[in-house]
Every structure is written in C-alpha cells, then in structure tokens.
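Supplementary Methods S3. Complex input for the nicotinamide-adenine-dinucleotide-bound model.
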Amino acid sequence: MSKTITLVKGDGVGPELAVQIKRLLTESGAKIDFEEVEAGEDAFKKFNDPLPKETIDSIKRNKIALKAPITTPIGSGYRSVNVQIRKLFDLYANLRPALYMEGVPTPIPNVNLIIVRENTEDLYIGQEEQPTPDKAISYKVITRSATERIARYAFKYAGDHKRKKVTVVHKANILKFTDGMFLKISKEIGAKEYPDIQCEDRIVDNMAMQLVQKPQIYDMLLCPNLYGDILSDLCAGLIGGLGIAPSANIGVDHAMFEAVHGSAPKYKGLNKVNPTAFILSSCLMLKHIGEPSIAEKIELAVKQVIKEGKRVTYDLVRGKGEPSTTSQMVDEIMNKFHSLK
Ligand code: NAD
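Predicted complex, serialized as structure tokens:
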C-alpha cells in the first residue's frame, strides 16, 4: 500500500527542487503518493499567510513531510516557517549527517560525522523584547525534559548505528545554568543508560576549531539548538558545501525531511543548484517510512554520479568540466539508479 507524504514546495529554489524530487522518487518505484502544498514567500503572497492552514492540516494528516527550502525575512517580517513547523509538530530532534563522498572537492576527505541538534528551545523560542531603543533582550531556554529526550535520541541513535562516541557541545563555562544543565543531563543519561557509548564534551568555540583541524576524531555531536545550527553548516562546508548536506527533523508522531541549505534566492528559476542535499534528505525519509532498499540504491546512484563528476552541478565541477543543470544531474542519477542491480 502506498504512503501519502506532504511535499512542501517552499520558495526560491524550492519549487524547482520539489519538481525534481517528485520525478526521481516516482521513477524509483518507492510506494509513495505526494500531497503538494505551499509555504513561504509564495504562499504569503497568495494567502497572506506563509504557513497556510491547508499545509498544516496536510502534515498533521500524513505525519511525514518532505520540505523544500523556505525564505525567512531577515530582521523583520513573518517568523520562520521552518521553526514554526518544527514547533507545531514537536520535531525535537534535528539529525544532520555530514558524510564525505568521493569526488567532492573538499579540503578534508573522510569526514564522517552525525550532528544531533535539539530543535525546540534555546534561543530559537524567539522570545525577544526591546525595552528601550538601545537595548534588546533574547531569552535562551533549556529544560530538563527537552534535554533528556534529545540526549536519549542521540545515544540511542549511536547504539543503533554502531557509532562509538558522542561529544556534547556547550558553553557551560559562561552559561552555567542553561548550557550547564544541558551538559550535566546529557552526560548523566549517557553514563547511566548508554555506558557502552563513549561520552565527552567540548566547549563550542574549541569545537569549531577542532572540526576544521581534525574532524576525523569525532563521531557524533550532541548540541543545543544554536550551536547545532552553526556547527552543522560548518560540517556541511567540510564535506563540500550546502549542496550535499541533508537533514531530518524527527518528533514522536511526525517527521519532516529537508536539505540543510536555504532557498538560495539568487539562483531561483535558474535550474542551477545541486539537488543532492534534497535527494539525500528524501532518502532519510524513505528509511524512516520503511523503504530502506530504495533509499540505499538512490544514495549509491548519487555517490557514483558525483564520483564520476561528468554530470554534476556548478558546485561539484572539477577542473574545466562544464556544469550540468539541476535537472540534468537528476537525469544522470536516474540513469545510474536504473543501471544498478
Ligand atoms: P542558502 O543556503 O539559501 O544559500 C547560501 C549559499 O549556499 C547560496 O548562495 C549558494 O551559493 C549555496 N547553496 C545553497 N544551496 C545550494 C545548492 N543546493 N546547491 C549549490 N549551492 C547551494 O542560505 P542563505 O542565503 O543564508 O539563506 C537564504 C534564505 O533561506 C534565507 O531566507 C534563510 O532564512 C533561508 N533558509 C532556509 C532554510 C530552510 O528552509 N530549512 C535553511 C537555511 C536558510
């Protein structure tokens, strides 16, 4: 029986990526049907609401969403639709694998990291005030319950995926209450409930430097929301850029899958950006809904296309090769997929 998933088309380069992902997944034989909905700038122009009720209802009903990128206005305007969806459906765990793929131009090969980012609190609760024109305040919230569940998610993931070590990232030397609590609870859960997984911690600034110098010595990072957001982009840089970094937002009943990158507005409509991040996010989704063999076959096809380097987008072109368009790269991935046993 087919599973219906919500495909959120997004804005900027989102709609063109959504077209490609639908084409690829349909041709892959995955047993899924798509319910296409809108969110972001285009939805705001049409419905005066960047996250229309129809979109929320669709995710509520289908429980699984594949979401193309969405623009968030900077400094003013509506609040982040991405953050709203994560909050509405309590998608508390943000999983961001950063895995090296052969053939990708990158300063450091063999990076193999999983970042688990707490997705519901920290500075992202968006509680800000400006008591005077010269003073602005933002509240950083860390709770025991949210920390316990993200720590359990990270250690369980480590056990399930044969990972050996979890590094808790924090700034507890300065933020003794908030990050201090995140660190203490995470380490307690690790020691008591997952004694076979090694647990260590790093202060976030040192972590950033070490990730650039020797990422290979790390395995999984467990981060509060803000540090996870920043470090996962850094790790995307280590594996060759935002064009290839996927992510999953997991809750108890619902889950949403999306590329780490944003709506890249300057490339809107140009059929230019790399589809890999969104394709690999859809593979995380396929594994989550019980279609692992198709997911693994798509992942293998993507890896082979990138390794060959003949039909890849501008960000992956090596030497003097001509860049392919988004749709040409997807064509090549589909050809490769069909040629695999
Ligand atoms: P961005 O990720 O959209 O783009 C930054 C740069 O990265 C691009 O200019 C491009 O050079 C490169 N890039 C991004 N995606 C690529 C791809 N698929 N292939 C090749 N190169 C790619 O980040 P930004 O410019 O800071 O943000 C643009 C908008 O996206 C903002 O409104 C931001 O809030 C939003 N955003 C949304 C999400 C999301 O929907 N989950 C995530 C991050 C940012």
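The CA atoms of residues 179 and 321 lie 47 Å apart. The chain has a mean pLDDT of 95.
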